[in-house]
Amino acid sequence: MIYKESHALILNNIARFIDLTELEKQKYLSLLTDIKVKKKAFLMQAGDFAKYEYFIIKGCLKVYTLDEDGAPYISMFAVEDYWTGDMASFMTKEPTPYFIKATEHSELLGISRANYDLLFQEIPKFERFYRILYQRSLVSYIRRSNHGISLTAEQRYIEFKKKYPKIVNRITQKDLAAYIGITPEFMSKIISKVNRM
Amino acid sequence: MIYKESHALILNNIARFIDLTELEKQKYLSLLTDIKVKKKAFLMQAGDFAKYEYFIIKGCLKVYTLDEDGAPYISMFAVEDYWTGDMASFMTKEPTPYFIKATEHSELLGISRANYDLLFQEIPKFERFYRILYQRSLVSYIRRSNHGISLTAEQRYIEFKKKYPKIVNRITQKDLAAYIGITPEFMSKIISKVNRM
DNA sequence: TAAAAGTCTTAAACTAGTTCATTTTTTTTC
DNA sequence: GAAAAAAAATGAACTAGTTTAAGACTTTTA
């Protein structure tokens, strides 16, 4: 069976952890929705109810919150082959505190809450897929939050650049500052210092 | 069927997400190991291979890493009804970067890696249990790391005290500082300031 | 393609948090 | 229950990162 590109990509992502039969693949794909967002458009805004969890086929999005003073804090940049959304809101059906905004024209596949529940009923193997996916995310989150706290902003920038060399060149310095957790001014100083080294 | 206290506690924790038959309960309990650690003793040290994942029946433990300068950073305090361990090392069979040290005499139940794998084979319902457990941990980790970065140390202390009022009174100020991510001296200043308010 | 809007740079004055050193208080140990 | 060890408090000098402001450079939009 030949699948369109977006479907081949998501099946490939899932095949990392579980094997599906042809029938299961088709069933799964039927539960997904195609979504496109233009650059600067929002996929989600604070106060919304997270209707989908998303898989990114193409593009780049930033996931962020605003603090009391309205300053953004970016928790992740989501690019090709990443999963994103607000799992807390998706699960609890409470409003999200997040904004998700496309920094490039992007294409995604979404699974709705109703279809997510249906998925576990129809193809219980997906419990295993998500168990492993969440386990791995948890490990990398723990590493990140553990690692981050004792490093200086300069060290965090150097690590980010090493870990995500492709992403650094796709985002603005301002957004990078909001991810690293410093002001754009200080980000500018760090970058020119690191480049001089 | 009547279970000993530690078994009743862990079954209760599991019953939050899945229902087990009597037979499954007995099978599950047979896969667990009783563990005791005295105050100041290590459950795990950096360089060890994480042999178990732990459920805490009684006591309090701190999970921490040391940075290059040997300064501790505490990532969690684990008390009654919590799960702890190093999942990354447990899964990948690589050495752990963590120390887990009892701050009180503690009793735990452990599941070994071999039995964890066996568990999913014998009682597939546990895929669901762990999927939900990891999903929830992920949500609270994301919230914590998101929340933490933009707050001052004083605000982080106030939040911690509000969220874990019982834990605050069981740990030293020094350990609290290592959790908040500041020096014990500055922690001391913050506490006396907050008490004066 | 010109104007407007947004991003980046630089610099001076400021603040949250660190470091180091000393004393007091509390806890542990024999 | 005395001695030793660890934790907590206090203060002065220091540093990483913020704030504010202004000008230069780039990207977007009409």
Automatic annotation (TrEMBL), chains A, B:
Residues 16-120 form the Cyclic nucleotide-binding domain. PROSITE patterns: CNMP_BINDING_3. This is Cyclic nucleotide-binding domain-containing protein. It comes from Spongiivirga citrea.
